[in-house]
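Blinded run. Sample ID left blank on purpose so nobody reads anything into the name before looking at the predicted structure. Input follows.
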Amino acid sequence: MRWGSGRRSSNVEDRRGMRVSPRMAGGGLGAIVIIVLALVFGVDPRLLMQGMGTQTSTQAPAPQYEQTGPDPMKEFVAVVLADTEDTWSALFRQAGADYQEPTLVLFSGAVQSPCGFAQAAVGPFYCPADRKVYIDLDFYRDLRERFQAPGDFAQAYVIAHEIGHHVQNLLGVADKVRGTQQRVSEAQANDLSVRMELQADCLAGIWAHHANRSRQILEEGDVEEALNAASQIGDDRMQMRAQGYVSPDSFTHGSAEQRARWFRRGLETGDLEGCNTFQAARL
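Blinded prediction complete.
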């Protein structure tokens, strides 16, 4: 991926080296809120609640992170974020709307957001309450080593997917889905979650389509990197790694094949209308 000369976004908030100090607050309603948030945002609630019960927390400086020289990963993230800003600003402008830029938060280990306390194990996530994307950069090591999905464009796809959730939030899609999920069965709520995630994959593809057409960011092998990353974090492969079998009824993000296919659709068409997973007869 050609990124070295790209513009750096100023919307990167670096919280690495900030220690999260959770305080136990018991179970009850707080635990229910955590579970609801987890289901809405596509996160396994067990990961959010592991070792914490229901918690409030504070963040304070901690000495575990020190950057003494250039930080290429932070630079990379800032460039990709800037590119999504440029792409979606142009697309929103064409539609007669203003794109509101999100903030991307870098953290290490754990983080507190309006969506709750999250450990790095949950992976990157978007919180609509503060319109911020959260990512522990160690996830990229897991993507490369654990999930066998190396490459800088695979890393860019991860950011673009979370920005896709921000676009859904701005378009009102997220609110409609959350409202409907509260009124339907668990199976129907999971189906809506899958459609939400696949649309975010498609929106990531739209970013790549327009960014490459405008700025020629793609190099040979980049598309394959992103498709592989989308596949490797499909629910079927994640479940097989974690539990040795697959439970399609519990999918919340989509299968490997679905995630790769919807990303490719956005990449090939660049068309927002083509990303309407909620009307699609076949996911």
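Unblinding after everyone has recorded impressions. The longest strand covers residues 18-24.
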